[in-house]
Amino acid sequence: MGFLKKIVVSGRGLVVALPYLWLLLFFVAPFLIVLKISFSDVDLAIPPYKPLLEWTAKNAVAVKLNFNNYAFLFTDELYLKAFINSIKVALVSTVLCLLIGYPMAYGIARSRPVTRNILLLLVILPFWTSLLLRVYAWIGLLKANGVINNILMSVGLIHEPLVMLYTQFAMYVGIVYSYLPFFILPLYANLEKMDWQLLEAAQDLGCKPYQAFYKITLPLSRNGILAGSMLVFIPAVGEFVIPALLGGPNALMIGRILWDEFFSNRAWPVASAVAILMLIMLVPFMMWYQSVQARESAGSR
Amino acid sequence: MPLRGFGRNLRRANSGVAISAGSVAKPTPWNDPTARAYVQLEHVSKSFGDFKAVDDISLKIYQGEIFCLLGASGCGKTTLLRMLGGFEKPSAGRILIDGEDMTGVPPYLRPVNMMFQSYALFPHMNVEQNVAFGLKQDGVGKAEIKDRVATMLDLVKLGEFAKRKPHQLSGGQRQRVALARSLVKRPKLLLLDEPLGALDKKLREHTQFELISLQDKLGVTFVVVTHDQEEAMTLASRIGVMDHGEIVQAGTPSEIYEFPSSKFVADFVGSVNIFEGKLIEDAPEYVRIASHELDAVIYVSHGISAAPDAIIWVAVRPEKILMSTEAPGGTENVVRGTVQDIAYLGDLSIYLVKLPTGKIVRVTQPNTSRHAETITWEQKVYLSWNSSSPVVVTR
Description:
heterodimer, A: mainly alpha, MetI-like fold, two-stranded antiparallel ribbon, 13 helices, 2% strand, B: 395 residues, alpha+beta, Rossmann fold, CATH 2.40.50.140, 2 domains, 20 strands, globular, disordered N terminus
């Protein structure tokens, strides 16, 4: 019996260990490497930084932590501006996703099962093509002699092409378009579980339909909204590809800075410091989200 | 409230069987042609595509009643209830509540509240907030809300659970929250969809009586949907038996049970033995009926109206059949058979007796004594019944 029990326990241990191992290998280890680089000095070498640990003459190890990289980020206001701008872009994108995605998720959740599956498929379908291709497709749509301008000109609504590509507008279009499914899916999963009879009960007690939505549906879907918002906001802060391809030259975002520091300046330590700071900035959001989730799941038990 | 206690009066009116008419001082509203209907359905129909869920129902419900819509699932009773609540629009006909045409009025403007089968309590609000929801929506003052919610919670004995969330309550407590929430707005009409369906048997029985006393205290008119005939019999002042979107019979529980108007009603409400037959003698005061399913003539001590050659059915309730090992006097209303099966239920026993014709007759006998188990399997017995017991139905 004892032997059998041991096997069962170790089997359970294995199941738990696997995700931990995964996180260790692909999250903790890279994070530590980046953290290490952020504390080292720039060097003209391969890799382009000095080691943290040095053998001193007396056969001892000296650890040299260099905070200059972080200090540097606060001396040049370029970085601060990039941080603020990234947050702003991510926030606006999240709000836009909420405004567009909520009605869509609601519509899908309330449609008949057959229609619902088709609609869900349509939401997921873009993932079958590479993100890069889809962003390039937007270039084709938005450019001066692109599809949209050509149609507007041919029906005579405008006489010269609208400048859409390489603007803030194009960047938001790209980000909202790319991240919308990440907002819709968790929200749909939340709304789909809702008991629609609650809305009838609310109406029975004197609510007009829009009041029932505001007082019942909205608070009950709060978790879905939060999950969707986090899935849009967090990656959007560090987004690089879309602003680079669609945004204007002044689309100063952290992703862009990271790219420039790593590849143009080969300033790996500074780039690592930027990455670490960005992570630190996002931690409060994630912790808040986690605590809300934990409270909610404790409440429903 | 002027109508305090009216509910009980209505319910008590049917505790005596209806034939005692003549000596009754105050007629029940449904027997009084001058009485004003509180809820009136006029030729109400509802179709979903090709399917007629409710088919041309006209019905009057009076103030202070507990009216039960009884029927199997899919008979249209819930659709009818939802039309009263405003959740479905009738395809044809009119619905009047307290004299006002409510046919096209949305649920949030009706003086009607509903208790949902699933209770539909708001999971993000506690008990107090759930009950206060409707009052808040109506813009009632804070102090009054607090007062009325507290009174209502005391009434359903949930005062100490005011701060709990619905998921922290038992099924019976949730049911009472739902009831409090739907009653706190003092609706003219309360609709209850299978109000006790989710409760276990013991609790259900207890709650039935609580529900009755609550209705009695508040004087609100109830319309209850149920598929449970026992529940309908306990609660109702009147029952409307529904089948295929129609009300096939409406009457007091005892009328429905003792004087079913059709084979369907007789069979649906309680259990019954039905013998097919034809009239052989038709007098104003009595009839004789021959049934090929019995080897005896059925004598019924009241006149009926049926065509001479038409096939008719005689319904006899199992508890109205006497079973004995010795032959009772007379030849009419007496049949012989063999006990085929016995089900001992404690308070009573069910006997299935096989007649020589092959027909199985169901007989129930109360177990009045603790030891007497005189009749057993394979025993030859005589079955007999009083000539006033059979009910003759023509459809």
